[in-house]
Prior knowledge:
The protein contains ten helices and 13 strands. The protein is an alpha/beta fold. The protein has a single domain, classed as Alpha-Beta Complex (Spore Coat Polysaccharide Biosynthesis Protein SpsA, Chain A). The strands form three sheets. Strands 1, 4, 5, 6, 8, 9, 10, 11 and 12 form a nine-stranded mixed β-sheet that branches. Strands 2-3 form a two-stranded antiparallel sheet. The protein has a two-stranded antiparallel ribbon with strand order 7-13. A hairpin with a 2-residue loop joins β2 and β3 (42-43).
Amino acid sequence: xxxxxxxxxxxxxxxxxxxxxxxRYLPITKTVPKxxxxxxxxxxxxxxxxxxxxxxxxxxxxxxxxxGKPIYEDYxxxxxNRIRKxxxxxxxxxxxxxxxxxLDFPKMIVITQDSSLPYGNGSPVASAKKYVETEEAFLVMxxxxxxxxxxxxxxxxxxxxxADPSVDAVVMAQEVEAGVVDKYGIIHFKPETQNQLSxxxxxxxxxxxxxxxxxxxxxxxxPSIFEYLNPNHTGLDGELWTVDAITQVAKxxxxxxxxxxxxxxxxxxxxxxxxxHLKYVMTYEKYGSKVxxxxxxxxxxxxx
Length: 304
C-alpha cells in the first residue's frame, strides 16, 4: 500500500486538463491547444495555473494532446534567452518580466492522455493517476473554465477542505438563471442538507431543476476517486465521466458543494470564449476602458 507524502500543505498538486480535440475551434486547434488561446496577452492555461498558485499549489500536471505537449513544455520552460538579451540591449528589460513570471511558476509537468483509456472528460484525470495517488487530496481543473475575481475557486476548494478534511470531495458550483438550467449539470443535494451532493442532474428541463446551482470543472478529490475513474466504470455513450465517479463517491461518502465567490465563465465554444475574452480585456487590460467606445464606433459604421 502506498503511503501519502508529508507536506506542510494538505493539498499540494493540481491536474489541469486540455486533452480534447476542440473540434468547435478548428482549424486553429489543429496547431494550437485550445487553452493556449489568449485572454488579453495571456493564454487561458496561464490563468488556470495562476488560480492554482493563489491556492498554494506546489506541482501542476497538465494533461495535453500529443500535439499540445511540446507547446506547453515550451511555454512554461523556454527562457527565450536571445529575446531577453535583445531587450536588455534596447533598454526594454521590463518587457521580459511577463516571461520571467511564467518561468517562476511552480513545478510544471506535461503529460499526454493515456491512449488506452476510453473517450471522456475523466480520462485525462485518470491518465495523471500516478502523480497524485499518494496525495491526501488534489485539485482537478478543466481549462475550459475560467474564473474571474478573488478568491479563485482553487483557493475556495482548498480552504473548504482544510476546514473539514474528513470530506471525500468538494465540487464548485455557480447559480445560473432559471431559463438556462437545461444547458448545465445541476446540483441535487442530499435530503435535509444544504451543502452535500447527492448527484448532478444533466440539463434538466426548466421548472424541473433540483436547484439552480450549475456544476463545472473545479473539483477537489481524493485518490479514492480512482476506484470509479477507470475503464470499468464508463457511462453515457461509453465515455468515462468525472462527474459519474464523483456521484459514486457521494453515495457512501460526503461530497461538499461550494458556491464560487468569483465568477465562472466557460470558453468551451467560440461564442463563450469571445465573451470571456472581452470580459478579461475590459476588466484587466490597460486599454479595457476604451472597448465600449470602440464597439460604439464600429457599430455606427455597420450598414445592414
